[in-house]
Amino acid sequence: MLRVQVQLTPVQHRRLRQRAKRLGISVAEVVRQAVDAELDAKERDAHVDVARRALAVCGKYTDPQGPSNVAARHDAILADIYRQ
C-alpha cells in the first residue's frame, strides 16, 4: 500500500472516526472504502452515460434504400461476410 497525506476538516475527521468505530475498522480502511465507492460510482456513471447516448440514436436513422431483413438474417449475412 501507498501512504498518502490528506487534510480533513475537524468535522470530517470526527465523522470518519465515528464510522470506523461503528464498523469496527480503521479510519484508513473507511477512507479506502470511500475512495473505492466513489471511483466505482464514477465508472458506473460513465458506462450509463455511454449506454444512454447509444440508446438515444437507436431507431433514429433509416436506410435510404428502405427497410432490410438484416435483423432477421444477421447470422447468414455474417457467415457470408466471413467466407469472403
In short:
The chain has helices spanning 10-23, 27-57, 70-83.
Written description of the protein model:
This protein is mainly α. It has one domain. Helices cover 70% and strands 0% of the residues. The chain has three helices and no strands. Helix 1 crosses helix 2. The longest helix is centred in the middle third of the chain and has 31 residues. The chain is elongated.
Major sheet characteristics: none
User: Which segments are poorly predicted (pLDDT under 50) over 5 or more consecutive residues?
Assistant: none
- What is the N-to-C order of secondary-structure elements (H for helix, E for strand)? HHH
State the share of residues found in helices, binned by percent.
Answer: over 70%
Give the tally of structural domains.
Answer: 1
- How much of the sequence lies in strands comes to under 5%
Number of helices: 3
User: What does the radius of gyration come to?
Assistant: 26 Å
What is the CA-CA span between the terminal residues?
Answer: 53 Å
**Cα shape:** elongated
Q: Strand pairing plus helix content: what structural class? A: mainly alpha
Task: Please state the average pLDDT score.
Answer: 89
DSSP strand count: 0
